[in-house]
Structures are given as structure tokens and as C-alpha cells.
Amino acid sequence: MFFQTWNDFFNMGGYGFYVWLSYGISLVAIVALIVQTIKQHKTVLQSVLREAQREVRLQQADNKGDTL
What is the pTM of this model? Predict the structure, then answer.
């Protein structure tokens, strides 16, 4: 597709509103998915760290009980 001016490019033959709206909605959805994935990844890592710390505390308490 060839456009004479930038204005023609943005108008997209009269369908510019729909074209750019669809691009915008797609961009928002992709950004939202990326943000959600990053937040979920951090939450999972924190959960794993808490569980590992809990296991260490339980082992220390068990070892302390064995020595008494």
C-alpha cells in the first residue's frame, strides 16, 4: 500500500480510526500481559523463598529438639 502523505497514512483510506484503535487495544493488552507476568513471577519467587526459609526454620527446630 502506498500513501502520498502522512495524513493519508494515518487515515488509512477512511478506516484509520478502526485500524489505529485495533493497534492501540492490542498494545494495551500486550503491555497488561507483560506487567501481569512480571508481577506473578515476583510473587512466585517470594513464595518459594518463604517456603525455603520455613523449611530451614523447621530443620533448625527439629535439630534443636534432638539435642535436648
Answer: 0.70
